[in-house]
Amino acid sequence: MKTFTPIAAAILLAASGSAFAGNNTATTLQTGVGNNANVNQAGILTNNNTVMQVQTGFFNSADASQSAENGSMIMQVQLGALNYASSTQTLGLSNTASVLQVGVANTAKTKQTASGLSSASIVQTGFLNWAKISQTVSLLSSASISQNGIGNSAKSVQFLSLLDSSTISQNGALNNADSWQSGILQSSSITQLGLGNDADTRQVGLFNDASILQDGVGNQADVSQLGAANSGSSSQFGFFNDSYIGQVGVGHMATTTQVGAFNNALVGQLGLVGDTATATQMGIGNNAVIFQ
Length: 292
Hints:
Largest sheet: 12 strands, parallel
Helix content: under 10%
Keywords: Signal
Family: Belongs to the CsgA/CsgB family.
Protein name: Curlin associated repeat-containing protein
Signal peptide: 1-21
Order of helices and strands: HEEEEEEEEEEEEEEEEEEEEEEEEEE
Number of helices: 1
């Protein structure tokens, strides 16, 4: 009696799952040696989705999965060696995920769950960069990560978000950036140039805006917002500067600017409405603390 080969068993299993799926399209194009690409569009209520995966080089790996998803798209392109890309879309509608990696040993992951009309985009060039975007119960939200260099890491999370926007851009080496958003019509922007900088934004509420710009070595910046219509901005130029902005309430505005080295600025705004704070430091080893 003949038995199923592993390939035949896999085809039978996929056929049984795809009885509830339709009009999905998957395309893979591979040039090189030892590349691996996987696509899963089987399962109930998985319809009208598209996956495109392109790999050129050596030992790249890509995974794409769409489950109970409708009208969504995944595009993953890898040029180089030992890169890994993974995109997952589940229980959503009309989402887009795109990954472009050029270089060696970069890792990119996107995950969209119970979301609609949202977009996740990762672009990495260089070596050993790592990026992840997670969108959960997100509608009309967008997150993008762009990295150029060596050993940079970035993560963007949008949870229970509507019309939120997050942008992370890194050029250099060993920079780290994290963005976390939950709410409506919030904006986060992080730009890093240099070596070993660290930036974090956290936003919960409505209409909040956070921006961080770092140019130099070993700078640290944090903007945290809870409330509505708050604005926090941090700019750092130099070495080992440290800035923290914390806002709780409505309509607060805070700006820190640091030029030099080993400067420290702390701004805490805890009043109900409309405080304004500005801290500007030029030189070495200055300290500023503002509470409102």
